[in-house]
Design brief:
InterPro entries: DUF3137 (IPR021484). This is DUF3137 domain-containing protein. The chain has helices at 9-42, 46-86, 100-105, 185-190, 201-206, 214-220, 223-235, 270-292; strands at residues 88-93, 116-127, 130-147, 152-169, 178-182, 195-196, 207-210, 239-244, 249-255. The protein is of the alpha+beta class. The chain has two domains: 1-86; 88-297, no CATH class. Helix 2 (46-86) packs across helix 8 and helix 7 (223-235) runs antiparallel to helix 8. The longest helix is centred in the first third of the chain and has 41 residues, at 46-86.
Length: 304
């Protein structure tokens, strides 16, 4: 990491601020020209609309370019050192993501359906001897509709989820398969036959527990663990979904509506960014720390 750090903090802050300003300007040009293009085509000013379309395409290219450079600069100069501080044997790809197989294999209970997965900021690492993966994830619901005027089918997509997704392998068989979701009316109705009522009424008000076996849910969700999950969910900044898989993996998805490791509108102050990124990671590692010592989480070996 030291070899990559070629800029002082002051130079890096100036570079990040400049790239963000250029990306913001490109975004304004792109969306403004795009809106003008549709309006001008609609009123029949085709030549002017074509000019606006070309401007929108150039703006889109610049937006993509500046966003990519900004992400790469953050990755090389800030994110990589933060990851090394928290994890061991880190592999980080700012433009990669969790595989479809991992995401779909979690069997998460969402109040929406999705058919397409995107993402970024893919991390593979070891944390206190446990293998994990983490990335930004976006889930999209895809629909097809027939356009009578064009006589063709058109595809449209709607973003249903944007946030962070952790997969941690505890390396041991868990006591059961248990899934946690936000308490919504639709999910209560959908899972009336496999929804488990826990002995914590506050927990039940906020979270739905889905499991085929109630005893397995009680093993995984001890009173201490339910209290902790409620507290962690309150600090998450979004909706929390969890999936405990018997094979040993825990999936945690947090619908925050934003990406990991983004500069956003915050100050480009490097120390502040480091603390922000560390806090985002510690939210997940704190859950791992709390869970890994829960004896009832793991299936007991039966003696022969």
């Amino acid at each position: 990491m030291d070899e990559k750090q070629k800029l002082t903090n002051e130079q890096l802050e100036a570079e990040l601020g400049s790239r963000r300003s250029k990306a913001t300007l490109a975004k304004i040009v792109t969306y403004g020209s795009g809106a003008a293009t549709m309006l001008l085509f609609g009123i029949g000013l085709t030549p002017v609309a074509i000019i606006c379309l070309l401007i929108a395409l150039v703006g889109g290219y610049q937006l993509s370019k500046q966003t990519e450079v900004l992400k790469k600069t953050l990755s090389d100069n800030v994110v990589s050192s933060v990851l090394d501080e928290v994890f061991e044997r880190v592999e980080y790809d700012p433009f990669g993501r969790l595989s479809d197989e991992l995401v779909n294999g979690a069997g998460m209970v969402f109040p929406f359906s999705y058919e397409r997965v995107r993402g970024s900021d893919h991390i593979k690492a070891v944390y206190k001897g446990l293998n994990l993966e983490l990335s930004d994830v976006e889930l999209y619901h895809v629909t097809d509709s027939y356009n009578e005027e064009r006589s063709e089918w058109e595809e449209s997509e709607k973003k249903a989820f944007q946030g962070q997704w952790l997969v941690c392998d505890f390396g041991k068989t868990l006591s059961g398969e248990v899934r946690l979701s936000e308490n919504t009316k639709a999910l209560r109705k959908q899972h009336k036959n496999d929804r488990i009522e826990m002995e914590n009424p506050v927990f039940n008000d906020h979270i739905i527990v889905i499991a085929e076996n109630a005893q397995e849910a009680y093993y995984v969700l001890t009173p201490h663990m339910m209290d902790y999950i409620l507290t962690a969910a309150g600090r998450s900044g979004g909706e929390v979904y969890m999936s405990f898989l018997r094979g040993g993996k825990l999936h945690i998805a947090v619908k925050t509506g934003r990406d990991f490791f983004e500069l956003g509108r915050n100050s480009a102050n490097i120390d502040s960014l480091r603390q922000k990124f560390l806090g985002e990671l510690r939210w997940f590692t704190d859950i791992i720390d709390t869970l890994r010592v829960e004896d009832t989480l793991y299936k007991k070996e039966t003696s022969a």
